[in-house]
């Protein structure tokens, strides 16, 4: 703040000073008054003198003031902690205030001027020096630095600064030395050295870069193809093809592409490791949590855990062995591809050789072979017996729970009976019945007659299709005739001469038969229809009139209400009101 300096005494400090002065003088005065009294004359005991009301009030006020706390004023009332400053911010963005006092100049070489704590020295181009914080009795009044802050440029190449927070020595461009509070940086050409509390950096560019931190450090050397950094949480090192990577206790290392190894370093029962050697076709991993291991050496694959062990020689030999003693099931499976497979466990067994398979479970028994096959499921409730396919196939299927029995002597005869229906089929004819729902006849080669509760259909694939389903019907004689009808409309096509499209919802009809066209639609008061024999003649009517044309208007006449129009050589002659709708025809 420029101008006269204002001094403010805190109210608490003023009250404490006044209370101290009063207490200093009040207590001795009361004591002196008590000591100066003399007891009354006469014998006997002497009673103490009762204080007057004025004395009682004076003593009360003195003791009351003595009990008040004394709070010393803060040493720096404007001091703000870094936490509070970061929260509330500040509009102060410059250095100390402008110097105060009279200006003094010294004309000479070098030139010098001073004002208060400020000094400037100039000897261009050899010296330029600026200083704040000179010892001056008035500097405490203006908040200027309490220690000198000097910076200067000497000989155009050397820069020097000395202050409480920072020291700088720079000989451009060869040498730098900077102190920033407790941190020091020295740069001399390619050599860099930095020191800070718990930190250091040492560089010799471009040969190596090294540094340390309280929890780690780094080292980089491009010529040695080496880079490394480490901390308590993670670390990484790379030298040529060799790498080492750590995250917590998890470590991966290797020499790419020859060797790779990893270990998560877990000590809580979940340790995992792996090793990979690609050129030897070798891989090994282990998981502690399930006591599993996997090893691959070329085509040989070995896996083991608490429940089973696996040994394979891909793609020909595969073997699985259970471990009931450690929680697995008593099982064993062996495959010699493509010649043999046998497997068993407490629930089932499977045996396979070329042309034969046998599978047995607790509720089923299935045997398949080239000559005879038999399958039973659900404890014999269903059974299938087949002979073939070397000889004409005969098979028999029965489901006692559902009452289904089907058998066939292919390709001659097939029949099936169940509570739901009866089917039979020969190469020439067949009948399929679903009791009370549907019936279908098949006649060789492609004729079918079907009926159900919703309608019927007779087809001769792929030429003729006739049928009805509830209120819909269709007739197709491919590829010349199509007719589809339902309550919403009807479409009939006799390709290529006849086309008819009828919409039953708005009574719209569009019909084309050779060179004739018939159009119809429902309008207010009745029906609007027209018939055209292209290109000779057209005639039409609506609830308000009619029209006729010869050769599309070579001669014609139309009436719509009271309006008429006559056409001669396509030239209209209107009578009465303009017959807008008739003219549009």
What's the gyration radius in Å? Answer: 57 Å
Structural class: mainly beta
Overall outline: flat
Number of DSSP-assigned strands: 52
Unreliable residue runs: 1-47, 579-583
Average pLDDT value?
A: 85
User: Mind summarizing the main beta sheet?
Assistant: 52 strands, antiparallel
Query: What share of residues is helical?
Result: under 10%
The end-to-end distance, rounded to whole angstroms, is 99 Å
Number of helices: 4
Strand content: over 45%
Give a short synopsis of this structure.
By secondary structure, the protein is mainly beta.
Characterise the protein shown here:
The protein is mainly β and 585 residues long. The chain has a domain at 362-418. 9% of the residues lie in helices and 52% in strands. It has 4 helices and 52 strands. The protein has a 52-stranded antiparallel sheet. A hairpin with a 4-residue loop joins strand 1 and strand 2 (111-115). Helix 1 packs across helix 2 (53-67). Mean pLDDT is 85; it is low at 1-47 and 579-583.
Question: How do the strands and helices of this protein lay out in sequence?
Answer:
Layout: H1 11-36, H2 53-67, H3 82-88, E1 103-106, E2 111-115, E3 118-123, E4 127-132, E5 149-154, E6 158-162, E7 166-171, E8 175-180, E9 183-188, E10 191-196, E11 199-204, E12 208-213, E13 216-221, E14 226-230, E15 234-239, E16 242-247, E17 250-255, E18 259-263, E19 272-277, E20 282-287, E21 292-297, E22 300-304, E23 308-313, E24 317-322, E25 332-336, E26 340-344, E27 348-353, E28 356-361, E29 365-369, E30 372-377, E31 382-387, E32 394-399, E33 404-409, E34 413-418, E35 421-425, E36 429-434, E37 438-443, E38 447-452, E39 455-460, E40 464-469, E41 472-477, E42 481-486, E43 489-494, E44 498-503, E45 508-513, E46 516-523, E47 526-533, E48 537-542, E49 545-550, E50 555-560, E51 563-568, E52 571-575, H4 580-584
Antiparallel strand pairs: 1-2, 2-3, 3-4, 4-5, 5-6, 6-7, 7-8, 8-9, 9-10, 10-11, 11-12, 12-13, 13-14, 14-15, 15-16, 16-17, 17-18, 18-19, 19-20, 20-21, 21-22, 22-23, 23-24, 24-25, 25-26, 26-27, 27-28, 28-29, 29-30, 30-31, 31-32, 32-33, 33-34, 34-35, 35-36, 36-37, 37-38, 38-39, 39-40, 40-41, ...
């Amino acid at each position: 703040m420029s101008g006269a300096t204002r001094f403010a005494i805190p109210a608490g400090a003023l009250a404490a000073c006044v209370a101290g002065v009063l207490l200093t003088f009040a207590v001795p005065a009361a004591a002196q008054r008590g000591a100066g009294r003399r007891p009354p004359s006469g014998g006997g005991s002497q009673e103490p003198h009762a204080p007057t009301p004025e004395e009682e009030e004076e003593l009360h006020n003195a003791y009351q003031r003595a009990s008040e706390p004394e709070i010393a004023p803060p040493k720096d009332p404007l001091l703000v902690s870094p936490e509070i400053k970061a929260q509330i911010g500040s509009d102060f963005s410059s250095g100390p205030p402008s110097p105060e006092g009279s200006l003094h100049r010294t004309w000479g070489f070098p030139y010098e001027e001073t004002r208060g704590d400020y000094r400037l020295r100039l000897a261009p181009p050899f010296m330029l020096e600026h200083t704040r914080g000179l010892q001056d009795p008035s500097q405490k009044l203006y908040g200027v630095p309490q220690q000198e802050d000097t910076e200067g440029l000497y000989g155009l190449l050397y820069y020097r600064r000395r202050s409480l927070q920072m020291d700088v020595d720079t000989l451009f461009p060869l040498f730098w030395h900077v102190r920033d509070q407790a941190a020091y940086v020295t740069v001399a050409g390619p050599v860099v050295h930095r020191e800070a509390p718990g930190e250091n950096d040492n560089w010799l560019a471009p040969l190596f870069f090294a540094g340390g931190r309280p929890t780690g450090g780094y080292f980089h050397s491009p010529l040695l193809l080496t880079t490394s950094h480490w901390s308590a949480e993670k670390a990484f090192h790379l030298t040529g093809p060799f790498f080492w990577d750590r995250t917590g206790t998890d470590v991966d290392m290797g020499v790419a592409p020859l060797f790779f190894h990893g270990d998560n370093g877990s000590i809580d029962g979940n340790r995992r490791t792996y090793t990979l050697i690609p050129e030897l076709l070798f891989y090994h991993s282990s998981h502690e949590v399930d006591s599993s291991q996997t090893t691959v050496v070329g085509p040989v694959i070995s896996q083991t855990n608490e429940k089973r062990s696996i040994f394979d020689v891909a793609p020909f030999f595969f073997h699985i062995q259970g471990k009931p003693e450690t929680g697995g099931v008593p099982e064993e499976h062996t495959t010699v591809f493509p010649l043999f497979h046998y497997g068993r466990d407490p629930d089932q067994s499977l045996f396979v050789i070329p042309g034969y398979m046998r599978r047995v479970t607790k509720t089923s028994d299935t045997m398949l072979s080239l000559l005879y096959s038999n399958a039973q499921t659900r404890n014999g409730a269903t059974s299938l017996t087949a002979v073939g396919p070397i000889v004409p196939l005969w098979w028999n299927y029965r489901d006692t729970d559902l009452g289904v029995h089907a058998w066939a002597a292919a390709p001659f005869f097939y029949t099936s009976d169940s509570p739901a229906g009866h089917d039979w089929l020969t190469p020439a004819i067949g009948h399929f019945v679903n009791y009370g729902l549907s019936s279908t006849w098949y006649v060789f080669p492609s004729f079918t007659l079907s009926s159900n509760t919703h309608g019927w259909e007779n087809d001769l694939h792929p030429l003729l299709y006739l049928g009805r389903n509830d209120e819909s019907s269709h007739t197709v004689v491919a590829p010349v005739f199509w007719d589809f009808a339902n309550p919403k409309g009807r479409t009939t096509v006799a390709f290529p001469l006849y086309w008819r499209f009828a919409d039953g919802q708005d009574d719209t009809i569009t019909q084309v038969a050779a060179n004739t066209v018939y159009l119809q639609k429902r309008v207010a008061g009745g029906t609007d229809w027209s018939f055209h024999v292209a290109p000779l003649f057209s005639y039409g009517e609506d609830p308000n009139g009619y029209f006729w044309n010869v050769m599309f208007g070579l001669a014609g006449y139309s009436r719509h209400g009271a309006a008429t129009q006559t056409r001669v050589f396509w030239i209209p002659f209107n009578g009465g009101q303009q017959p807008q709708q008739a003219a549009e025809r």
